[in-house]
Design a protein that fits this description.
The chain is an alpha/beta fold and 391 residues long. It has two domains: 111 residues, Alpha-Beta Complex (Aspartate Aminotransferase, domain 1); 247 residues, Aspartate Aminotransferase, domain 2, CATH 3.40.640. The protein is built from 13 helices and 14 strands. The chain has a seven-stranded mixed beta sheet, with helices on both faces. A three-stranded antiparallel beta sheet has the order 11-14-13, covered by helices on one side. The chain has a two-stranded parallel ribbon with strand order 1-12. Strand 3, helix 4 and strand 4 form a beta-alpha-beta unit. Bound molecules: glyoxylic acid. The site of glyoxylic acid (GLV) has 5 residues, from loops.
């Protein structure tokens, strides 16, 4: 007689089923077969020499896409949120002042993360899609004297690509670190970590990089390293402590296989492959393709009578396009219709933009005219078939 009181779950005795979908939302996006195949390669040990070679290739790929020479360049074992927490936990100590630009969900997240670790958080708040001028940023910095200033480059909840020029200089003048989120924009819109004087930059694997979710490139310059390696208190997270992560990623030659945590071996294979694809294509070509396809999509959306949420086309995020919810329609019904009838994901807003926008993401592997045509066709069909209210 079995000693088990819990039987094997019936669900697990059935084969895994995963549908094939058009992932035309803000991410994850569809993953190219080459990247999927890389993730399916045999597992090796996370501390084997071949793995360090692969991690070194990843580091070089991140330096390329970030346009940085920073030695302290790694990938987190975790999603963009892990990178976000790593940046804040390592560079800020409890009680220190942090300034956060909030014009969508990502600023809200960073503010909450910084509050949870005991920072003194100051929010500059605007409605989704609005910009912060350099003057406003400098005034807030002079007032709050933060050690860290956070700004989102590609605000996926609003479809905004925030200008970066001059902000790094302001941060340096006020002895403040400049932290930038490029999860939704990396590879799709230009950003230059070193020349724009960004001290800490991170992204995620699952957007224009087209890797599976679960790894997140991040880089720290010398100013950031100075601050985080000369702190009085230990960071609140052991997993995200850069003292350990730098031994794992950057100083492993000296220390030779120091165990900290077991990195996501298959995720790193995929990430290396997606960085290789971007290196082969070239960053500037990738930016050009995203911009060109976005312009094509904008025209198609306007031809359908839809209104783009970000009015100034130069401020639109090329990877994620936001549409004002068409008058009289229930946006949830439109999304459900497209999923059901076209097997296609688009999404509504996120955080403060919920109820304001619908979002279409065409990035990396999905950045193709045929996909834009398919998305426009599905939207036209949904607008025709979903009931419009009388009001
Ligand atoms: C997630 O990254 C989103 O923008 O929905």
């Amino acid at each position: 007689m079995s000693s088990l009181t819990i039987p094997p779950p019936a669900a697990l005795l059935r084969p895994l089923e995963v549908p094939n979908r058009y992932l035309f939302g803000p991410g994850p996006s569809n993953v190219p077969p080459r990247v999927l195949a890389a993730g399916g390669r045999p597992i090796i040990g996370h501390l084997h020499p071949e793995m360090y070679e692969i991690m070194n290739d990843i580091k070089k790929g991140i330096q390329y896409i970030f346009q940085t020479e920073n030695n302290m360049t790694i990938s987190m074992s975790g999603s963009g949120h892990a990178a976000m927490e790593c940046a804040v936990f390592n560079t800020v100590e409890p009680g220190e002042s942090v300034l956060v630009a909030v014009n969508g969900i990502w600023g809200e997240r960073v503010a909450e993360i910084a509050e949870r670790m005991g920072a003194n958080v100051h929010r500059m708040v605007k409605t989704p899609g609005q910009l912060f001028s350099n003057t406003e940023i400098e005034q807030a910095m002079a007032k709050h004297k933060p050690v860290l200033f956070f700004l989102t480059h590609g605000e996926s909840s609003a479809g905004l690509c925030h200008p970066m020029d001059g902000i790094g200089d302001i941060c340096q003048k006020h002895n403040c670190l400049f932290l930038v989120d490029t999860v939704a924009s990396m590879g799709a819109a230009p950003i230059f970590m070193d020349s724009q004087k960004i001290d800490i930059l991170y992204t995620g694997s699952q957007k224009a990089l087209n890797s599976p979710p679960g790894t997140a490139p991040i880089s720290f310059n010398e100013r950031a390293c100075d601050k985080m390696f000369n702190r009085k208190t230990k960071p609140v997270s052991y997993l995200l402590d850069m003292t350990h992560l730098s031994n794992y990623w950057v100083h492993y030659h000296q220390l030779c296989s120091v165990y900290h945590h077991t990195g996501p071996v298959s995720g790193f294979f995929s990430l290396r492959e997606s960085l290789a694809i971007l290196a082969e294509k070239g960053l500037e070509e990738s930016w050009r393709q995203h911009k060109e396809l976005a312009a094509y999509l904008y025209k198609g959306l306007e031809d359908l009578g839809l209104t783009l949420f970000i009015r100034d086309k130069d401020l639109r995020l090329p990877s994620v396009t936001t549409i004002a919810i068409p008058k009289g329609y229930n946006w949830r019904e439109l999304l459900v219709y497209m999923m059901k009838n076209h097997n296609m994901e688009m999404t509504g807003g996120l955080g403060p933009s919920i109820g304001m926008v619908m979002r279409i993401g065409l990035m990396g592997y999905n950045c193709k005219k045929s996909n834009a045509d398919m998305a426009l066709h599905a939207l036209a069909d949904a607008l025709k078939n979903c009931k419009k209210s009388k009001v």
